[in-house]
Fold each of these.
Amino acid sequence: MRKLFWSILFLPVSLAAQQTPFQNFKKYPYPTELTAAPAGQRIAWAMDEEGRRNVYVAEGPEYTPRKLTDFSSDDGQEISALSVSADGKWVVFARGGDHGSNWDGGLPVDPTSDIQPFKMQVASIPWAGGTVKYLSEGDAPVISPDSRQVVFIKNGQVWTAPVDGGAAATNLFNTRGTVSGLQWSPDGGRLLFAVARTDHSIIGIYTAGSSSLKWMGAAFAWDFLPQWSGDGSRIVFVRRAGVGGAPDSLTVNRPVPWSIYIADTVTGAARLLWKSSATLRGSYPSTDGGSNLHWAAGNTITFLSYQDGWPHLYSINADGGQGGIGTAKPVLLTPGNFMCEHIKLSPDGRFLLCSANTGGDALDIERRHILVVSVDKPNMQVVTPGNGLEWAPVMTGDGKNVAFISATPQRPPLPAVMQLGSKEFTVLCKDRIPADFPMGKMIEPKQVIFKSADGTIVHADLFEPPGGVARKPAIVYCHGGPPREMLLGWHYSAYYSNAYASNQYLASLGFVVLAVNYRLGIGYGYEFHHPPHAGAAGASEYLDIRAAGLWLRRQSFVDTARIGIYGGSYGGFLTALALAKDSKLFAAGVDFHGVHDWLTQSSLITAFRDRYEKAPDYDLALKTAWLSSPDAYVSGWTSPVLIIQGDDDRNVRVSHSIDLVNRLEKKGVPFESMIIVDDTHEWMKWSNAVKVYGAAADFFVRKFMR
């Protein structure tokens, strides 16, 4: 029972007696991997219920949810790459690994410290129910159009197995490099893929029965994201420059141009279709899905670009228009000051679905709603308006329904289904919300807007607890990423739904919480997402965090002597920087797996180790990176801090926390630390997430409420 009471252990007796423990705030179910069968009305999704991750399915018209698998322990094994076969008889997925990692994502995740860790596996299970069949170690499974075979990646190569597990998996082919992007041809006879070879990447096609691979438009370039045409006679893919060239400036933002090519699958010859402008806005998009390239119906290519200042959807004719290949001008499908994410093509190729921060309410810039648009004209429609949040849309195979994830500021995310043309939708799995989940205690965050010292407009979400005009302690929350946006409700990322639950819990304890959408984040246009002098090039985003603290200091309901700060990953970096540079403003903080030295986190030192040439501003870049790091300002750090990290972190080296602990101890700064053995950056084990966020709340209570 110690874990249950960890989060109230240090509360004052009167407060502890009336508060719901953090564990209850973390009891929400969390759905991911929503997908639809290529035909019919069948949908499937994964759901995490207190660490027990399982596959659920439902079928129209009733869409009654049914749990298909029975994984019963909080073991940290995620479910990914979920799909339903074309005949609707099989559900296939990968189990295990860490798909949110920066490295070693395919290695076993073992937060339970088993002596024989579970290795990532490709699995199948009949739609009707039955036993999960592990087909092989591997990842990224794709079911064949005839529903009989599954191809997948194992050790960077392509393997195959019968979907029913009736025979052992076999290696389909070998090639140099690391293969990705598997996609069956429409007739199921060929397999499209990309292979990365250190400094370049090539698009290839495997044909059943052939003794050799065929390469598509190979060049000294980085080719990726290939897609078939509807008849399989051509493919489309993205091209960027290969690795190399004369070193350029490191301290200023530079364009990252890209282009779209069409290749003939018989000859392998490739021709330019479209090329981005050589401007910052023309750079390859760094939001969800990158270019989100699709070959749609009507010989139409669709893609996402930041070229007008927002991540918008565009279309272009595959033949390049009357002027020939490379001369056609793309059609902007989604005009307006908002972004498109989670983009899917309808089964018939006629529509694009996405989630977007737009609608009839000005506050929608901090929400997500489902948007549908034709692939060839700008007739977009927000189909889920209101004050809720909706994301990850898919259209059912019969083209009659849209399924998505739905939430409100109070109700946690759940799958939902609506008929196309309807204004109402049905939320599924409401009975999976536990009775002791404190939904009635959830506060609706309020939008706050303020200016940084350099005039940058910053948005934030304010969690203001009840209690009248009495001055209360306050906490600034810094998200990670940094390309993220905190929302006016539950988040489409499991990591940031953890943070949302934590912010709600802190508010229930009497803290004012301000979740800051600082520059470098998404949702507010290109210039906000890619500001100058940010990160290792100057940490200009810290101006927004400091401005948030100063905004709180000006509020009549805030105790100016009790302002804290916390965050994870990039938010941990900003927390440490705030405490190091502004301990007089931020009286205490909690740093989850933060970056503390940009020189060791980035490749600045190693990038030119074996080169005579150096970037023209190399020495300046090194100095700027150091002066953008919390470690550079430890001499001014006086506020107490709690440092937390998992020692199997695959996003930020655990050495950052070790190094900071040593520096703080030498200087005599009061600190506490918590290392979570064998868990990762994402807190894959539910009970570990309960433990660390509960510990953060305890820390602030002890510093500000005793």
Amino acid sequence: MTTFLLLRHGETQWNAVGRLQGWRDSPLTAVGLSQAEALPARLAGEGVEALVASDLGRARETAAPIAARLDLAVVPDPGLRERCYGILEGKTWAEIERAHPEAYMRLNARDQDFAVPEGETGNQFRDRVLATFDRLAAIHGEARVAVVTHGGVLGIVYRYACEIPLEMPRTFNVPNAAFNRVRIEGRRWTVEAWADVDHLPVGALDDT
């Protein structure tokens, strides 16, 4: 059984203004940096044995204080990236609705077979995320592993563990820099803690 201590990256400049990030990046805001600085203390009592992060800049920037204070090396893993939204990345939802109305409609309809040009379908994204966590569980065995990743990735993990179809609207929160704990044992995934933000100095934005 592998215990994953799952963390969404800190607030970014594009989070703050509602721009879709996907595989593109924007730096952490001052709030995001303070959120990242609060994470090592939250993890201090969790017995973390390894630290893995998405290779995107916002996740690596969030992981850096954890690595420094817990004396762990950050292992970058592209399998932990956010969903790729192709040509829509960097745009707000209002801009997407105006410039790409079909993509806007199909994403809002939660069409999991729809791929934005140069992007992933929802089903492709799910399969990538689940395969990544299966691989990490096989590598780390019974260890306790901190993972810094993205809102969409965490959404896939929660839905799989709780058997919520991708087509269903999201009814759970995925705040920036929140603490989540999930145990994986074969095909059994158990959520032990979710969306804990008590360690944060200020409120956190939910994933959009």
Amino acid sequence: MNCKMSRRNFLKVTSVTGAGVAVTSALPDKVMSWAEAKDTEMQAVPTFCEICFWNCGLVAKVQNGKVVKLDGNPLSYRGRGRLCGRGNGGLGSLYDPDRIKTPLINTGKRGDPKWKQASWDDALGLVAEKLTAIKKQHGPEAVALFSHGTGGAFWKHLLKAYGSGNYTAPSFAQCRGPRDVGFTLTFGNEVGSPEFYDFSESRYIVLLGSHLGENAHNSQVQDLILGLERGAKLCVVDPRLSNVAAKADHWLAIKPATDLALLLAWIKVIVDEELYDAAYLKEYATGLPELKAAVAACTPQWAASETDIPAEKIVQVARELASRKPNVVVSGGRFSAWYGDDAQRSRAIALLNALLGSWGRPGGIYLPAGGGVPEYPGLPDYPAHRDDLPKLDGAYPFALNQTTTSIRQAAITGKPHAMKGWLVYGCNLLKTLPDKNETIKAINNLDLLVAIDILPADITDWADVVLPECTYLERHDTLSLGKFKEFEVAIRQPAVAPLFESKPSWWITKELANKLGLGTYFPWKDGEEYLRVRCQTGGINFAELQQKGVLTSKEKSAPYISAGKEPEFSTPSGKIELYSAQLADQGFDPVPTYTKHPQPPDGFFRLLFGRQPLHTFSRTTNNFLLDDLVPTNSLWVNTRTARSLGLVDGEQVRLVNENGVRSLTPLKVRHTQRLRPDALYTAHGFGVRAPGMTRAYNKGVGDEEMLGKYSIDPLMGGTGLRHNFVKIVKEA
């Protein structure tokens, strides 16, 4: 039976069939019952959101055993009593009729599966059998974990107990890794996740390619708006007039792939005119003369010829920015895997913050609070790793984490060592990794692929075993620890019992560990005991945490440099490194240098992509509350360009990349003056090709489908994903 739902009302389900499993009365009678049933008592359950990684605190309202409303938890720093549109749509995940309902074993082929419903005992028994065989033949290091989400902590623990250290997340090589490396090379520290930007106290904010607001980073958006209300100036560098650019004092519609030229010109203006924070640099930095010499040729006039931004505007913004130091932030956003030299571009952003003295200063980049919660006590040590085994990321000397593509390459080539098993937790690898064909080639070389997910996403069709995890509203998870201006601990606890035969990851990993003979690593009775013991060990009042959802501590809080709080820079010199000797020692530029990147050939455009405010990648495109509002993406085309091509606003077109690959589904043209004429833009996350996701299936185009080539950052292995040149073909 096909169940159609909308955000306007939930239909009572008496028989929903998915993967052959009947569901009885799984949904609330009405989405508005929380407001209508005045005499019915509701239970309030504090927890935190998982629709995106921001993990905002929320309170689930439960009525008659059903979650009927989600409210923001005012005690949560990440949300401050508010939920974004996605967070408010969390019920669409909990009550999605397309959820995976039982463990599944693939008796067909990868990519063309035939599913057999299985008991948990049979499914986990098969996984344990395969993992044991891989370990015996190839060693434990031949198994890797791809993880995205809070529950991944239990899978990482299991993998390390099994004997492998090969765990990764697309959030490094395909997202923020270049930024983290650039800041670490400069300051010895990352800029945090969520970031330590003190926007609410800023006097000048520069955003480069950051779609803040459209990425729905809750507290950060609130801080930005507060900073603007208090008089901060805003400059946004972006080929597209994003929502946040519409609020800017300066929108610099830069030519794509030239951002580093602009950054180097700003650095030159600041050092030549001595607009930097001299006292700060004298105290905390090294390498200013070398930096000044390295940017000698990077004049505003030169940058103007590269970027299409007038030289006078480049100088104006540099002077305005410097005039408000140190209460300034220069942010490259989060997604920074653009062109393959991204760690160096991110380092140039870090250098600007250093020159202006923003690290550890009000309105700049605050120093996060200290704090932590001990791990569960009394666990055995993890097995030692082999010293003679080559590193998968050995070619990338500054990689802070393992990269997804190095694990994929090992599966394809067997080098530098065998890779025969993947555990894939919450990662739709067919849509997150560049070059789908390479991913499929790697998968076909595996002895085992296990997908742990809530929905039958694209990756599940390539799995041998699929394990249904319950949603964040049905489970305990590990603690969420936030090092903001204060230290924050948040708890996830179930608002309702798991639907269908889905299970939380703490349970799945514990049961699998028992079958692998690793039960001593998972001694807790259940998820609540795991959390209670950790809190007791760390001196945290567990009962209070359960009641409030969030606890904060100021004990180790000192967000700004002061007489009693000096910054610590974990660099080789112990200072901010404007000139990086460690880069020079590895044969890299010690100060970033500009590289010209290819521009689109005649008839082609660079395809840019970004976030949609109501969707988190492909994870929410099947959510009936959010799909009703934004069911698909469109193709932004500059109005002048569209008219020159004879494109009518709203007509259907297809995209063709340089390799001749044609988009599987069409897109609607959207005329706009908010985009440069040489670029196209679309929202990321659409183009789901998994038929089990019935609402999202074949809606829109995924930008990753059109990626004809990508580059690798030689410093850290990040994948440059903005080399995408496409042409527009009218739909017949």
